[in-house]
Amino acid sequence: MKLSTLGMIFCLTGALSFSTSLAQADEADELQLLKQEVESLKAGQRAIRQEIKGIKSLLSSKQQRRNPIRDVNVTLSVADDPYKGVTDARVTMIEFSDYQCPFCSRHTTTVLPQLEKNYVETGKVKYVLRDFPLSFHKQAPKAHEAAHCAGEQDRYWDMHAQLFANQKALHLDKLPTHAKSAGISDLAAFQECLDSGKYEKRVNLSMAEGSKLGIRGTPTFAVGLTESNGTVKALKIVRGAQSYTVFQKIIDDLLAPGDGEKKDTPKSGEG
User: Fold this and answer.
1) How far apart are CA 40 and CA 22, in angstroms?
2) pLDDT on residue 13
């Protein structure tokens, strides 16, 4: 009887010990599951934050695309830059351009002719060209130098047109051919100018000034009021190859205080 009672005690003790072990195991499993759920929630929160960040970035990018125009108030010197129109036109429009940029080419062939006809040739706008070859357009810097070398023989704008017309053939050895098509008579002088890197510093300075204005791509335009001593008070920055009507409104608003007409004969110049 005593042995039986003792056995029962051992059995009960073992059962209790086993139950306790099971309870502890269950508690450990529950704790592990709880930890896993917490980690899963944290991962979900991180994913949500990342998604929100992406949405904000996308919205910001779309906002920038919807609003390519920003106000500025900065004085720029254009005294030595190639231009079209009269020197003292009420409005000056500065294009920061890249000869390898397809959007610059599109602006040059579609919108610029309208601007020239309605504003430049009528003496209302002085149109200035600034150099801004982008870093990934390896042939563009020398093409910009070539345009200035052509300007020494009064063929800047002819070379400008040729470079855009042959945008996919701007290798260094092709530039003399484009110069000849642009009407350069002294090709030896042109080649000497190009080989010397005479205008490299000028191109780099133009890029540096554009960067200070926050310009990152081409074409980008600074539009403002012409001042004395070869300066312009830029009031608007326009990013991208916009439609004619975008520029039309900006120019007309700047012309509004007066008729903007000039009596002297429209002309073009390299500096």
Assistant:
1) 26
2) 53
